[in-house]
Design goal:
Largest sheet: 2 strands, antiparallel
Membrane topology: Single-pass type III membrane protein
Number of domains: 2
Periplasmic side: 1-6
Helix content: 55-70%
Structural class: mainly alpha
Order of helices and strands: HHHHHHHHHEEHHHH
Number of strands: 2
Low-confidence stretches: 36-44, 184-207
InterPro entries: DjlA, DjlA_DnaK_co-chaperone, DjlA_N, DnaJ_domain, J_dom_sf, TerB-like
Domain J: 214-280
Main location: membrane
Length: 280
C-alpha cells in the first residue's frame, strides 16, 4: 500500500496532542517515508535485463570519467581500459558498447552524480553489486600501479553517492592494495620504475609475492585476530563475491570472470594466513 507512511503519520500526529500542526507534521513525515519506499521498491523490482544493461554501461562510463580525473585521458588509460575488456572477454557488440560507454564517461558534460543515483536505485537492496562495482573501478584506477590523488578524489565521490561510508571506502583501498600482490589467472598489473610505473605501456605480472600483511588487508582482518575471526571474514567475503549469487542479483554475465578472480584472491589470502599463522 503506497500510503502507509501518511496513514501512520496521521495517527502519530493525532496522538501527539498538538492539534493541526501535529497532524500536518505527521503527514509530511509520512509523505517522505512513502516517497523513499516507492523509490526503493521501483529499484528492487527492476527487471534483471534492465539492471544488467544499466550496470554494464555505467561500469565503463564511470571508468572513462575516472580516467579523465587526471586532466586528460592518455593512450595508456585507453590501453588499460581495453586490457580490462580483454579480461572480461568482451568481443563484438559487447566490446563496441563498452568502448562507447567509456567515451561517454570521459566527456565534459557527463552527469556523474545522476548516473550513480540511477545505479544506486536499480541496485536497491543489493549492496554486493555496489561493492563489486566499486572494486572494478578501483582495479581500473590501480591498474597502472599508482592511484593518482585526483582519481582518489573522484572515487571518494563515487563511493559517497553509492552510500559507502568513509570507513568502508578506506577499507576498500586497503583491500585493493593487498589484493594487487596476489596472482589471479589472466590478471596483470602495470609495472615500471618507482610507484608511478614505466609509462611505456609494458605489462607484466606483479613483481613480489604477497605477504601476511597483504592477506590481512584482503580479508579486512588484523594480524592479531584469531582463527574464528579470520574464518568468519573469509566466509563473509566469499559469500558476497560468489559469482552465481552476483549474477542472480543483476551482475552482467560478462563480468562473472571478475567475480571469479576476486574469489580466487580471497581464497589465496585465506590460505596464506592459515599457513603463516599455523591455523588448521
Amino acid at each position: 500500500m503506497p500510503y502507509w507512511g501518511k496513514l501512520l503519520g496521521l495517527i502519530l500526529g493525532l496522538m501527539s496532542g498538538i492539534g493541526f500542526w501535529g497532524i500536518l507534521l505527521g503527514l509530511l513525515v509520512g509523505h517522505t517515508v512513502d516517497k523513499a519506499r516507492n523509490v526503493g521498491r521501483s529499484g528492487f523490482f527492476t527487471s534483471q535485463q534492465v539492471r544488467q544493461s544499466l550496470f554494464f554501461r555505467c561500469i565503463f562510463q564511470v571508468m572513462g570519467h575516472v580516467s579523465k580525473a587526471k586532466g586528460r585521458v592518455t593512450e595508456l588509460d585507453i590501453q588499460l581500459a581495453n586490457q580490462l575488456m580483454e579480461r572480461m572477454q568482451l568481443h563484438g557488440e559487447a566490446r563496441i558498447a563498452a568502448q562507447r560507454a567509456f567515451r561517454e564517461g570521459k566527456e565534459s558534460q557527463f552527469l556523474l552524480r545522476e548516473k550513480l543515483q540511477e545505479l544506486r536505485r536499480i541496485c536497491f537492496g543489493r549492496f554486493d553489486l555496489i561493492r563489486i562495482f566499486l572494486e572494478i573501478q578501483f582495479q581500473a584506477a590501480f591498474s597502472d600501479g599508482f592511484l593518482h590523488p585526483s582519481e582518489r578524489k573522484v572515487l571518494k565521490t563515487i563511493a559517497e553517492e553509492l552510500g559507502i561510508s568513509s570507513a568502508q571506502f578506506e577499507q576498500l583501498i586497503n583491500t585493493m592494495e593487498g589484493g594487487r600482490q596476489f596472482y589471479y589467472e589472466g590478471g596483470w598489473q602495470y609495472q615500471g620504475e618507482g610507484n608511478q610505473g614505466d609509462r611505456q605501456g609494458n605489462f607484466r605480472q606483479t613483481a613480489r609475492g604477497p605477504t601476511l600483511a597483504d592477506a590481512c588487508k584482503v580479508l579486512g582482518v588484523k594480524n592479531s585476530d584469531n582463527y574464528v575471526v579470520v574464518k568468519r571474514a573469509y566466509r563473509k567475503l566469499m559469500s558476497e563475491h560468489h559469482p552465481d549469487k552476483l549474477i542472480a542479483k543483476g551482475l552482467p554475465p560478462e563480468m562473472m570472470r571478475m567475480a571469479k578472480e576476486k574469489t580466487q584472491e580471497i581464497q589465496a589470502a585465506y590460505n596464506l594466513i592459515k599457513r603463516e599463522k599455523g591455523f588448521k
